[in-house]
Amino acid sequence: MNPEIETQLSALRELHKKMLAEFAKIIVGQTDVLEELLITVFTGGHNLLEGVPGLAKTLMINTLAKLLSLNFKRIQFTPDLMPSDIVGTNVIEEDHTTGKRIMVFVPGPIFTNVLLADEINRTPPKTQAALLQAMQEKEVTAGGNTYRLDPPFFVLATQNPIDQEGTYPLPEAQKDRFLLNTFIKYPKLAEEEDIVERTTMNRDVEVKAVCDRDTLLKYQHLVRDIPVSKHVTGYAVDLVRATRPDEPGVPAFIKEQVGWGGGPRASQALIHCAKCHAALNGRVNVSCDDVRHLALPVLRHRLLASFAAEAEGITTDAIVKRLLETIPERTHG
User: What is the pTM of this model?
Assistant: First the structure.
């Protein structure tokens, strides 16, 4: 291994530990969720967090922005939210030097580093779509002009999986732009007792910033530089291709239970996340275990369960888990 890369990976591993320790001052438990958030950040992706109300989704994202010394903005998505409320709008102002009226662009909250799109499925598709260009091209177009977003830029969106009244499900094309779909579960008994004790007494805790923008961008570059063996890439591609019911040789249960499978972006996401998982643990060797570790949050929102599967209560999580038991690793070489 290159000694310089080894040193950088060791520093990244220590940073990872520091971030988890700082998180623990504010967030009780939820280590899997925090890990997926950090993978999102260090790969430069976006995350769709799902969980019932009261599980500290907003607090997690706000804390993450503080740890990274990044600009943070929050948008509460509502049925009357307009695209201009996100992107910004042109207004007419008087130029004091000439006395003429000129058009001036007033940037919206999307011009930030960490954007919390709270309850993203509560706004109609037209407004949801205002995020698409920013999420993929890292730029926005308004009034015929295109504006670049300063890196890094993350959309961390939340939605409530149980309250479907007055919501607009995200289209598949938009869900595919989220690197990960993170499920937040209820805390364990001891964790919930700890949460209640911490939050029902006078307690003032501040998290320390442990990373800055330039350091984050450097580590994002490092993660992309990590090499991946051919058999690991092949395994990730085999997993994704096996989710497509029309693909020759896929398992019979996929043809029955999946209406639409993952595209190439899913394969890319598996490898990006596997690289990052290895890097955060100080390893340069990416394994098939790293791919399997992130398969659920990478694939669950990129599969469309068939009507037959939905009728039987079979979730995309169950399909992915079965797929992991079915698809073999490729041999080395």
Answer: 0.90
